[in-house]
Amino acid sequence: MIRALLTIVILVGVVGLIGWVLTNNKKKNEAKTALVAQAASGEVAVRVTPVKKEALAANFGANGNFVPAQQMNFASENSGRVTRVLVDEGSYVHKGQTLAIIKTDALNIDLESAQASYQNAARDKQRFENAFQTGGVTQQQLDQAKLALEQAEARVSQARIRVSDANIKSSINGIVNKRYIEPGAVVNPGTQLFELVDVSRLKLNITVNESQVANLKLGDKVDVKASVYPDLNFGGTITFIAPKSDASLNFPVEIEIASNPGNKLKAGMYGTALFNFENAAPITVVPRAAFVGSVSSNQVFVLDNGNVAKLRNVVAGRVLGDKVEILQGLNEGETVIISGQINLTDGSKVAPLK
Question: Domains in the chain, start-ordered, CATH in brackets?
Answer without folding.
Answer: 44-55+281-353 (2.40.420.20), 60-69+199-275 (2.40.30.170), 104-165 (1.10.287.470)
